[in-house]
TrEMBL record:
Transmembrane segments: none annotated. This is alpha-1,2-Mannosidase. Its main location: endoplasmic reticulum. GO terms for cellular component: endoplasmic reticulum membrane; endoplasmic reticulum quality control compartment. It holds the Pfam family Glyco_hydro_47. It is a single-pass type II membrane protein. One of its GO terms (biological process) is response to unfolded protein. Its cofactor is Ca(2+). Keywords: Calcium, Endoplasmic reticulum, Glycoprotein, Glycosidase, Hydrolase, Membrane, Metal-binding, Signal-anchor, Transmembrane, Transmembrane helix, Unfolded protein response. GO terms for molecular function: calcium ion binding; mannosyl-oligosaccharide 1,2-alpha-mannosidase activity. The active site is at E213, D358, E462, E481. Gene3D superfamilies: 1.50.10.10.
Length: 646
């Protein structure tokens, strides 16, 4: 009985102490409801004790304590009397000093033997998914990895756009993974897969698909594989075969022609979101599309125009980009998320970096890198500046100073005010884009925040609420964006920290997503329940970036030629021939677009925007960061705390 009394006494004592702390400072333990996360940040309560500034604006150093307009003022009692020395300021970052050596011990080295093991693990992951797709699913579009069956369009439910936007009854997974086979060095299987595509794939199908998905997954892969087959400067050795007669290019051209009706009969030039591959735009098609869907066609369409000598494809894609750009806010320079293609009115005024917006920014920069059109880079520069001004919250520097770590939030495109407190997993691509733009410091911080979320759940929830420290949308469909940014940051810094990140991702996928015939979508990142679907981007992107991360000697990294990845991870060369075209102009510049005399010459400063196999951005990294953690331990610990890891 004595031990029971002792336990009760201790419980009462703790509750009493917690109540006192809450009443005094609001520093009691967080409340949890089963997810092992705290309900709301406690950092702002600590910040009240150690604040240096009077009233922090919502766009200042601290985002964790407010949504919009909420301020904390110092009271008169904090002001020193005349002649009295002010009390010494204390930094709340001191609360995260802890045992910093634990981060250095874990992340500061990565042996070659472990790198070799992880490379083999990434290769095995790809082939486990690919071989089972070929065994159980081909020629259907996707593999159901739990039931070991193929999946095609949902013909019984045409409104099931989650499936039908992507699956067009054209062996999607096989086409999407063609260049991954070469990246892994499997020339014979690549050639066999190309022949299968040539012999079995047709786009003359009664399938209604999303223009964006067909473009990045199918058109982009066909173009990439064709270039790698025919380009004598490609890095993978002799991969062509004698009877190849540009069939992949003909298939790509055929598909693009079938997508062109999306650009017809729109008052703005912004395309319809979907087309039927046989009949064109469906009669019941909606007039609304997202910015990324309409504005992320230029890379694939532009390369195709140059390969076939027809300006039509690049012209319609560029017209859509210019039309969207013209609709940006005059006050903030931001674009919205969803637009009416007939009226040009914004249906969703949310501006962010994730779903519906992501690849629009990405393709402004990559189009400039590939084609050298200065208009594209000027638009990107302007958009990036607006993002930094209106979306970025937190301290000014990633690795110095007080305040919360940098975070990019969803805002109203006209006012810049925060619209909600979630970020989505697609936004994890942005650190990789920042690397391409040379902003490695900001890339390091944002990537660290997403990595902390990954450590917390062993995956990235589709939406994560940074105020509640909890997932808003719980599924994870094996997306590649986190891996892509990890790979690009490693190429830029060569810091072993990113190899550890890749290893954590690999091990999480093996533990949480592997099933009988492949890797399955996580339905719930907390309880790890699964959905019977393996999307094609898992093989075309996630596995590819993981393999490249650990394969220092990959031909892509050793080649004298430069390469870039499309938004679906397809390899395309940065080639002078893509800066040359047979036509004189791409049509008149729309009002509001940034026009400039076109140049077909390599700009002198191009290389500072290109990510290639060597670390071109290393000169932007302070010397000590190349041999230590990319982010100081105190800031890593701070981010880990802010996502509820301790």
């Amino acid at each position: 009985m004595q031990w029971r009394s002792l336990v009760v006494g201790l419980v009462v004592l703790r509750l009493s102490l917690s109540c006192v702390l809450w009443l005094t400072f609001g520093l009691g333990p967080g409340v949890s409801f089963g997810f092992n996360f705290h309900l709301g940040f406690n950092l702002h309560k600590l910040d009240l004790l150690f604040r240096e500034d009077k009233g922090t604006e919502s766009k200042g150093k601290t985002w964790s304590q407010q949504i919009q307009g909420k301020r904390y003022e110092q009271t008169a009692s904090t002001c020193p009397q005349v002649g009295q020395q002010p009390p010494p300021q204390r930094s709340y970052l001191g609360l995260f000093q802890g045992n910093q050596d634990e981060y250095a011990r874990r992340y500061s080295s990565f042996p070659d033997s472990l790198k070799t093991k992880m490379r083999g693990m990434a290769r095995d992951m790809f082939y486990f998914g690919y071989d089972n797709y070929m065994k159980y699913a081909f020629p259907k579009d996707e593999l159901n990895p739990i039931d070991c069956e193929g999946r095609g369009p949902d013909v019984l439910n045409p409104s099931n756009i989650n499936i039908n936007d992507v699956l067009g009854n054209y062996s999607l997974t096989l086409i999407d993974t063609l260049d991954t086979l070469l990246v892994l060095g499997n020339v014979s299987e690549f050639q066999r897969a190309v022949r299968l595509v040539i012999d079995t794939v047709s786009f003359d199908k009664d399938s209604t698909v999303q223009v964006f998905e067909a473009n990045i997954r199918i058109l982009g892969s066909l173009i990439s594989a064709h270039i790698l087959l025919t380009d004598p400067k490609h890095p993978f050795g002799e991969v062509g075969f004698e009877d190849y007669d540009n069939e992949l290019l003909h298939l790509a051209h055929d598909l693009a022609v079938r997508l062109l009706p999306a650009f017809e009969n729109t008052n703005t030039g912004i395309p319809y979101p979907r087309v039927n591959l046989k009949t064109g735009v469906p009669p019941d098609s909606i007039n609304e599309t997202c910015t990324a869907g309409a504005g992320s066609l230029l890379v694939e369409f532009g390369i195709l125009s140059r390969l076939v000598g027809d300006s039509t494809f690049e012209w319609v894609a560029r017209r859509a980009v210019r039309a969207l750009w013209k609709l940006r806010s005059n006050e903030t320079g931001l674009l919205g998320n969803v637009v009416n293609i007939q009226t040009g009115q914004w249906v969703s005024k949310q501006s962010g970096l994730g779903a519906g917006m992501d690849s629009f920014y990405e393709y402004l920069l990559k189009s400039y890198i590939l084609f050298g059109e200065k208009e594209d880079y000027r638009m990107f520069q302007s958009a990036y500046e607006s993002i930094q001004i209106h979306m970025r919250r937190g301290r000014e520097s990633c690795n110095e100073g007080e305040g919360d770590p940098p975070l990019y939030v969803n805002v109203n495109m006209f006012s810049g005010e925060i619209m909600n407190t979630w970020i989505d997993s697609l936004q994890a691509f942005f650190p990789g884009l920042q690397v391409l733009n040379g902003d490695v410091d900001n890339a390091i911080c944002l990537h660290a925040f997403y990595y902390a979320i990954w450590k917390r759940f062993g995956a990235l929830p589709e939406r994560y609420n940074w105020q509640l420290q909890a997932p808003d949308v719980l599924f994870y469909p094996l997306r590649p964006e986190m891996v892509e940014s990890t790979y690009l940051l490693y190429q830029a810094t060569k810091n072993p920290f990113y190899l550890h990140v890749g290893m954590d991702i690999l091990q999480s996928l093996e533990t949480n997503a592997k099933v009988r015939c492949g890797y399955a979508t996580l339905h719930h990142v907390v309880d790890k329940s699964k959905e019977d679907r393996m999307e094609s981007f898992f093989l075309s992107e996630t596995c590819k970036y993981l393999y490249l991360l650990f394969d220092e000697d990959n031909p892509l990294h050793r080649s004298d030629n430069k390469y870039i990845f499309t938004t679906e991870g397809h390899v395309v060369p940065i080639d002078k021939r893509f800066r040359e075209r047979q036509w004189s102009d791409l049509g008149p510049c729309e009002d509001g677009a940034l026009s400039q005399t076109q140049s077909n010459h390599w700009p002198e400063d191009l290389t500072k925007f290109i990510h290639v196999s060597v670390s071109l951005q290393c000169n932007r990294i302070p010397e000590e960061q190349r041999y230590a953690l990319p982010l100081k331990s105190v800031y890593m610990r701070q981010i880990d705390h802010m996502v509820g890891l301790f």
